Amino acid sequence: MNASIQAFGRRLAPQALPLAILVIVAAFALSEPAFLTPGNLVGIVRQVAITGIMAIAMTFVIMTGGIDLSVGPVLALSGVVTWFSLDAGVPLPLALGVGLALGIAIGMVNGVIVAFAGLPPIIVTLAMLSVVRGSALILGGPDLHSIRGQEAYSFIGSGSVFGIPVSVLIFAAVAIAMVFVQRATPLGLRVAAIGENERAATLSGHRTRLTKLSLYAISGLGAAIAGIVQSSQVHTASATYGEFGTELDVIAAVVLGGTSLMGGNGSIARTVMGVMFLGVMNNGMNILNVPLDIQLIAKGAIIVLSLALGELKS
């Protein structure tokens, strides 16, 4: 009986997420025709772009059995540092470079401690969450810092090209780039090897420690990109952005995409689908005025169901 259930799960799992998205889109469209308007559909992607960028960047980390809980504070700190750079008169390209470099640096610190010191990723990144949040508060305080007179910077989060928000284009560019990395580069192969069997990958000559370091750097970069997009979108920077729960949404999107928290096979493309699933759910329930408590219960139930399907698949 157990074997037949697992066999059914293996057959169902690859199609479960696309089918679920189609079902809930149809349900919301029947309940509220405005759901399918082009403006609302573009709005859904715009709403999930920030979470999506971080989820895509964290997928490789989770595929190797790791996790990064520090992405929320990195988002906040990168936005604050970029704002301070712009406020000090630093040219926009250099200010963006400073914010992005900071995210990479924090990710590399996580990676060094996890890969070379051998400490558990959840403990390392939880500690880094606290350190980075405290650093952001020391630097910028709890206040909102308005971004004025920076039209080029504001264009990143608020502008559009041929009617498509720039934030959506950035999300798409990150997704395409990471799909390419996964499918057509040695890094993608090494990530898959570590996820399957880290010890075997090490014995085969793969530089597993350096690979892990680079993956946490990518995760930090994704959080920094998200922080820049968010601060330019809302025209403010604050050390309180990326509050507790941001990292949980990111991890939920990756898990919904079929990547196990224990490590193993994963897909950037399916992470994007997980992000869109959460976006459709949130948007549809908001349109239907579903109470927030019910929304939280529904999201939790969906995550548990996705984990159960993942176990059946394995």
TrEMBL record:
Keyword set, alphabetical order: Cell inner membrane, Cell membrane, Membrane, Transmembrane, Transmembrane helix, Transport
Annotated compartments: Cell membrane
Primary subcellular site in the record, as a coarse category: membrane
CDD domains per record: TM_PBP1_transp_AraH_like
Keyword Transmembrane: yes
Membrane topology: Multi-pass membrane protein
Molecular function per GO: transmembrane transporter activity
Coiled coil location: none
Transmembrane segments: 12-31, 43-62, 92-115, 161-181, 213-230, 250-278
Gene Ontology CC: plasma membrane
The protein's name in its UniProt record: ABC transporter permease
Organism whose genome encodes this protein: Siculibacillus lacustris
Biological classification of the source: Bacteria, Pseudomonadati, Pseudomonadota, Alphaproteobacteria, Hyphomicrobiales
